[in-house]
Amino acid sequence: MSDNGQPIIELRDVWKRFGRLEVLRGLSLRLEPGHTTVVIGESGTGKSVLLKHLVGLLRPDGGEVYFHGRRIDTMSEIELVDVRRRFGFLFQGGALFDSLTVAENVAFPLVEHGRKPPAEIERIVEERLRMVGLDGLQARKPAQLSGGQKKRVALARAIALDPEVVLYDEPTTGLDPVRSDVINELILRLKQRLNVTGIVVTHDMTSAYKVADRIILLHEGRIVADGPPELFRTSTDPQVRRFVDGRADEKDLSALNE
Ligand SMILES: Nc1ncnc2c1ncn2[C@@H]1O[C@H](COP(=O)(O)OP(=O)(O)OP(=O)(O)O)[C@@H](O)[C@H]1O
Ligand SMILES: [Mg+2]
To answer: Beta-strand (E) ranges in the chain?
Structure first.
C-alpha cells in the first residue's frame, strides 16, 4: 500500500439506513494513496451516500470510517473541518453558486478556509482555471456556461485547496464524448502531477476504464466485484456483465410488461 502500508481511507463494516431503506450493508474498503478507484453500480445503490461518508457529511449507523488511520465518523463538526479541507468534492450535478461569477465560485473554498490575501487568491483561481482550460472566463456567471464548462469550473473549485483526495461524483454525466475525455484527462493529470487520490463515481464505462487503477461494483449496498479494469473487461460474472454491458435482464424488464 503506501510507504508505511497504511491506506489513506478505510471503511470497516459500514452500515447506513434511511428510515426503512437499508442503503449500505456492511461495506469494507481500503484505499491506497495516489490511486484512482472507480465506483460503479446502479442508480440508487448508495454510491453518493458512500462518498458522503468519506468526509463526514453522513455518519454510519454501524462501522467505522478512517482517514490516514484517524477515525472520522465520530469526530465533531469542528474536527471535521480539517479533514474536509484535505478533500476536493465534485458534487453530482456540479452545484455551482448561480449568483457568483466563475472566479468567485473557484475562490469560495479559499475564502472560506484560508487566510490568504486577495491577490494570492486571485493568482490561485487563475492557475486552477488554466489547469482546467478555462482561463479568461473569470467574470462569467454559471448560466453563461455550457455543461462541460460548468463541470470544469466545479473541478477547478474542488482542487482550489490542493486536496490530497478528490471525490468525483459522476464527473462526465451529461457531457459529449469529447468533453468527457477532457474530464478524464484532468482526472489522470491530477493523479500524475499532484499525486491526488481519486474516487470516481460513474456510469460511464469508457471513463471508468480510462481513469481507474481499481474498479468497485456496488450492488444493494455491498461490494460485489473489486479489481483492476482488466477484471471487468474479461469477467464472465453475470452481475458484472449486466452492469458493464448495460443489458437489462428479465427482472429489469418485468416492470415494462405490467
Ligand atoms: N439524505 C437522505 N435521506 C434519505 N434517503 C436518502 C438520502 N440520501 C440518499 N438517500 C437514498 O439512498 C439511496 C442511495 O442514494 P445514492 O444517492 O447514494 O444513490 P446513487 O448510487 O448515488 O444513485 P445515482 O447513480 O442515481 O446517483 C437512494 O434510494 C436515495 O433515495
Ligand atoms: Mg449518486
So the answer is: 9-18, 21-31, 36-40, 62-67, 70-71, 87-90, 165-169, 197-201, 214-219, 222-227
Atom from ligand 1 closest to the CA of residue 50: 18
Domain boundaries, the chain: 36-62+72-86+167-258, 96-162
- Would you state the cell numbers that stand for residue 24, as one nine-digit string? 449500505
Ligand 1 binding pocket (C-beta < 6 A) is 18, 21, 23, 41, 43-49, 92
pLDDT at residue 41 above 80?
A: yes
DSSP, res 3: T
Ligand with the closest atom to the CA of 23: 1
HSE of 229 in the Cβ direction (CA atoms, 13 Å)? Answer: 13
Query: Quick one: which atom of ligand 1 is closest to the CA of 46?
Result: 18
Cα 145–Cα 189–Cα 80 angle in degrees, nearest 5: 80
Cα–Cα–Cα angle for 180, 239, 255, nearest 5°? 90
pLDDT digits (tens, 9 = 90+) for 141-159: 999 998 888 988 999 999 9
Q: Which three cell numbers stand for residue 143?
A: 448560466
Pick from 98, 97, 96, 70: nearest CA to 83? 70
The answer to whether the beta carbons of residues 105 and 96 sit under 8 Å apart is: yes
Q: Any idea which architecture 36-62+72-86+167-258 has in CATH?
A: 3-Layer(aba) Sandwich (3.40)
Please tell me the pTM assigned to this model.
0.91
Cα separation, 39 vs 200, in Å, equals: 6
